[in-house]
Amino acid sequence: MKGRRILYSAREIAWLEANRGMVISDYHRAFTAAFDRADVTAGHLHALRKRRGWKTGRTGQFEKGGEPANKGKRCAPGKGGNHPNARRTQFKSGGVPHTYRGAGHERIDGKDGYVVMIIDEQNPWTGAPTRPVLKHRYLWEQANGPLTDGYCLKCLDGDKANTDLSNWEAIPRAMLPRLNGGRHKTRVAYDEAPDELKPAVMAVAKLEHGLRQRRRSR
Hints:
Elements: H1 10-18, H2 24-35, H3 42-52, H4 84-88, E1 106-108, E2 115-119, E3 131-134, H5 135-144, E4 151-155, E5 168-172, H6 176-179, H7 198-217
Antiparallel strand pairs: 1-2, 2-3, 4-5
């Protein structure tokens, strides 16, 4: 009956504690055979071990250095990875994922809004035959050569998706704080300024940067 308390004799408890490390199926089979306890299930013995706090010595995890029991074994035909439903969705040799985008594909970076373009050059990090680049920088460097160390490209009209060369200017990175409004936002930030004021904000930032560089070089 459900909820009925299972009683064990002192001799049975002693046997159960002494053999607590057995796998539950073997544990149950050996106990019922030794004491003729058809009323006791494997679940009863499992619950008893937990109540008594008896440790089995097993963690339920693979031990370091151990090997899975099925290592090196192939699935039988029609089973596991060889089941028709599984094989239907497996990658085929030479197959191309449906998410693949070849050279020339473009997307907008969701974080910063820049245009990312796939070009036909080997990716030095993954070895893939194509790699992603920031389109505005790629086009600028194609026209002007590699960007000088310590410099970055500044978007002039505020539209980072506008990759026209006239919309990007190479400036020292040290100018960025001034164009961003300063540490305490005491000046108009370039990107927040009206279009007619942007050239003036840029000119002032260049002037201040030049003066600072001159003072530092004395």
